[in-house]
Structure formats: structure tokens, C-alpha cells
Design goal:
The complex is a heterodimer of chains A (321) and B (170). Chain A is an all-alpha fold and 321 residues long. Chain A is built from 11 helices and no strands. Chain B is an all-alpha fold and 170 residues long. Classes of the chains: A mainly alpha (321), B mainly alpha (170).
């Protein structure tokens, strides 16, 4: 198995997943079904997390192709460019969905009809439409790579793909060539993001495990947005590292493990702490014990985030030479 | 200014060159990983205390957060141990770089602010919660500033050194 297999396995998730979720979301908005709105936002955020390994494995698939076949470079480039734009829009859709989820799933009174909630839902709707369109282009140009029989001349290149390639070059240039201080500053931000994430997620998890037992659990969720902000900083800075030195990361096994672990930890964070699916936890007051399942999730979450820090530090160790 | 010869002696010792040059999984990157984990515990727990004192999660009772000081000190000692090992590996690199002393200064200040916060705010049980917050506000702010500065100074050590080793200029 190589990264091409993983890419082929994952690439349908953002494309079809976004479309299906958009459908569910539309029904939820039209029918005024609040639980469905919540599920749709959670799904958009989840797809945004899964889009990370999808995008990253694509570069690996490209390397596998370069070695073995006679696919034209322009077809691959069109796909790469379109995929970059689709990925960026997917991440923004996921981030806005997550912000909405955090803000409106956790209030007791029905907040989904409030002004800010309507604006958020509209923003998610527009972003998800744009993402779906870009995903369609990414999927189409990607299909062209392996199915030249569907190619009809000018389709081989895509104007959206060209914009994406242009953007990729610009970002690469900014990260690598514009100043020797860009990389260190991004690293610094990556560390500060890590601290916010670990601190805020960690204190909630420790409480669930029974440490700091005099604290009630519900107000600890106020720290989660700070953790999410740290996570967002790290996704952005991490992606900039990747665009700066893709060849350093693509085949690096430690990097691949780190991405895999981020998907696990990110999914836990999303489902467990950002939806109201496990709301029973919030009635746990000072001195009370959390249920065993919650403790299991909390312990896994701490272990996963610490593992991500260690794996991040070991990436240079896994460098392919 | 001449670089003290003792740095060369340290660098030529077995443990120093092992940490620096060994391809082992448990050498340089292992210690560096602990330094990152310790940072996460030390600064992460401090930031949570500071944010609460500054008014984030107001519904959360403040005084039990004193328990986080155990994590802060655990992180601190992990940093001292892993930091000393890294210093043994690269004494010239660290000790000839002003940024290294800036980092130590900022850490010292941050720790002093955190300890003052503990003494003045958490150890005084006569204070009401609003009193705790108003008394701790400046300390929490300054501790955040110093932690961010210490992390930044630490990160920049990899980019600002003059000598990598006693015999090599960077």
C-alpha cells in the first residue's frame, strides 16, 4: 500500500460528504430542525478534519505516479490547484461550522433562530456551496489523471486549477524565499497554538478524570473556544510549513503518523466536546465522578494530544534522505 | 570575547556527543520531545490559571484551580531536566547566544509572577472571588506576556546562535 491507495480511499469523503451534508443542512434549515442543523455543522467540521489527510496524501499519490506512468504534468497540476482551493474552502467551512456549533449547541434556550445564528447558518450555506463547486472541479480534474478516456481537449487544463497553482506558488514563495524569519515566526505561532490547545483541552480532560474534583464540569467548556483557536492557528501554520517544504513531509512516516493522530484527536474533540451529544457530563457538579466512558475519552484525548506533540518533534528524525 | 575552554571539554564528553550525534531514537529528539511536553504542561497550565483570573470562564470557581500548580511545577522540573541535557549537548551554542539569557530571564520572571499569584490570590482564603480577580489581574497579564516571550525566545534559539559548537561558527 502506498499513499496513492490512501488518497483514493479518502478522496471521496470531502467530495461526496460535502454534497450529502449540504443536502441534509438544506433540509434542516428549511424544516427548521435544530438537531439536524447541529449534526450538519458537526459533519462539515468532521469532513474538514478528514480533508487534511486527503489533501496531504494527494502529493504522495503524485510522487507514486511520477515514478510509474506517462500522465501529463498539466493534468496533475490542474488537479493540484483545484484541490488546494477546495481544501482551503473546506477548512473555512469547517471552521465557521465549528464556531456555530460551539456557540449555538451549548445554550439551553433554543438559539438557532437568533440573528447571529442565522448569519452563521447563511455563511455556512454559502461556503458549503462554494466548497461543493470547488470539490467538483477537484474531483473532475483528479479523475482526468486516471481516466484519460473522459478527457476532451481543453478540459485537460482548468482555469480554477490554474488559480490554485498560482496561489500554491505564491504561498511557497512567501514561506521560503520572502524572509528568513517567516519560518521561525510560523514555528513560534505553532508552539503558542499548541499551548492554548493543550492547556484548555487538558484542564477539562483532567477534571473528567477526577483531578481538580472541586470544579463543576459545565463552565470548563468556556475554555474550549481557546483550544479551538489554538488548533486553528496550528492547522494554518502547519499547512504553511507543508506548502513551504512539501518534499520534506510527504513521505515522512512520522509526519504521516502525526496527521493520522490529529484526525483521531480532532474527531474526539469535535464529537465529544463541541456537540451536545454527551451533555449528561455537564450536570456533573463539584466533587462528583464522571461516568467511565467519559473518563476513557478524556484519557485518550490527553494521550493523543501529547503523542501529537512528540510526533511533531520527531518529524526531522523521520526525514527521508 | 574568547569562548571558555570548559565548553569544549563538555562537548568532548561522552554524554554530550551521544546526545548530539547518536542516531538513537532516545538521544537528541527524545530529549527535545520532553522539552516540548514540559513546555505544554508548564505554560499550558499557567495560561489556564491566567485566563481564568482575567475573566475567562467566570462561572468556574477560581480557588480549586490552585491544583493546577502541581502540573505547573511538574512541567517546570521536566523543563529543567531536559533543558540541562540539551545544554550539555550544545553548551557553546546556548551560552554564547544572548537570546538564551533572555529566555532564562523571561522564564524566571514568569515563574515569579505565577508564584506571586499563588501567594497573594490563591493562598489568601479571606478574599472573595471578585477580589481575587482584581488582585491577580496584573500578575496574570504579565505572566502571559513573559510566557509568550519565553517560548518565542526559546524557539528562536535555533536561528540566532553564533557558534554551533566550540570549533564551528554557525
Amino acid at each position: 500500500m502506498n499513499l496513492a491507495h490512501i488518497h483514493l480511499l479518502l478522496n471521496h469523503v470531502p467530495i461526496i460528504g460535502t454534497l450529502i451534508t449540504l443536502g441534509v443542512f438544506l433540509v434542516a434549515v428549511i424544516a427548521g430542525h435544530d438537531d439536524m442543523k447541529q449534526v450538519s455543522l458537526a459533519l462539515f467540521s468532521l469532513i474538514a478534519i478528514l480533508a487534511i489527510p486527503t489533501y496531504v496524501s494527494g502529493s504522495g499519490a503524485q510522487q507514486a505516479l511520477n515514478e510509474s506512468s506517462k500522465v501529463s504534468m498539466s493534468v496533475i497540476e490542474a488537479h493540484q490547484g483545484a484541490a488546494l482551493l477546495a481544501f482551503i474552502f473546506m477548512e473555512i467551512t469547517g471552521a465557521v461550522s465549528l464556531a456555530g456549533l460551539l456557540r449555538f449547541s451549548r445554550t439551553v434556550k433554543n438559539p438557532w433562530t437568533s440573528g447571529p445564528a442565522r448569519v452563521t447558518l447563511l455563511a455556512v450555506l454559502l461556503l458549503a456551496c462554494a466548497t461543493s463547486g470547488l470539490m467538483a472541479v477537484a474531483g473532475n480534474t483528479g479523475g482526468n489523471i486516471r481516466h484519460p478516456e473522459i478527457l476532451s481537449g481543453q478540459e485537460a487544463t482548468s482555469s480554477i486549477g490554474a488559480v490554485g497553482v498560482e496561489l500554491m506558488m505564491t504561498v511557497h514563495h512567501f514561506v521560503i524565499d520572502s524572509s528568513m524569519w517567516v519560518w521561525p515566526i510560523l514555528e513560534d505561532l505553532h508552539f503558542l497554538g499548541l499551548i492554548l490547545l493543550l492547556g484548555s483541552i487538558g484542564v477539562l480532560n483532567l477534571r473528567i478524570l477526577g483531578f481538580l474534583k472541586q470544579l463543576p464540569i459545565a463552565p470548563l467548556h468556556r475554555f474550549i473556544p481557546w483550544g479551538i483557536a489554538g488548533f486553528a492557528v496550528n492547522v494554518i501554520t502547519g499547512f504553511l510549513f507543508y506548502l513551504g517544504m512539501p518534499d520534506f513531509y510527504i513521505l515522512n512516516i512520522v509526519f504521516q503518523l502525526k496527521i493520522f493522530t490529529i484526525v483521531l484527536a480532532g474527531t474526539t474533540l469535535l464529537v465529544f466536546y463541541c456537540t451536545s451529544a454527551f451533555r449528561s457530563l455537564e450536570h456533573i457538579g463539584p466533587g462528583e465522578d464522571a461516568p467511565p466512558f467519559a473518563k476513557f475519552i478524556a484519557a485518550s484525548s490527553i494521550v493523543l494530544w501529547l503523542a501529537i506533540i512528540v510526533l511533531g518533534r520527531y518529524i526531522p528524525f523521520g526525514e527521508v534522505t | 570575547m574568547a569562548v571558555p575552554l570548559i565548553f569544549k571539554t563538555i562537548e568532548e564528553s561522552g554524554i554530550s556527543s551521544w546526545i548530539r550525534d547518536s542516531p538513537s531514537f532516545f538521544a537528541y529528539w527524545f530529549i527535545l520531545s520532553f522539552h516540548a511536553l514540559g513546555m505544554g504542561l508548564l505554560v499550558g497550565a499557567s495560561v489556564v490559571v491566567d485566563l481564568r483570573v482575567l475573566g475567562v470562564a467566570r462561572e468556574l470557581p477560581l480557588s480549586p484551580l490552585k491544583g493546577l500548580y502541581r502540573i505547573i511545577w511538574t512541567g517546570f522540573w521536566i523543563q529543567v531536566a531536559s533543558g540541562l541535557l540539551l545544554l550539555v549537548a550544545y553548551p557553546t551554542k546556548a551560552l554564547t547566544n544572548p537570546d538564551f539569557y533572555l529566555k532564562l530571564l523571561l522564564i524566571a520572571l514568569a515563574v515569579v509572577f505565577m508564584q506571586r499569584l499563588r501567594k497573594r490570590v490563591f493562598d489568601d482564603s479571606s478574599l472573595s472571588e471578585p477580589e481575587m480577580m482584581s488582585k491577580g489581574k496584573a500578575l496574570a497579564m504579565w505572566s502571559l506576556v513573559c510566557w509568550a516571550g519565553a517560548v518565542t525566545a526559546g524557539r528562536l534559539l535555533a536561528y540566532t546562535y553564533y557558534y554551533l559548537k566550540y570549533d564551528y561558527r554557525g
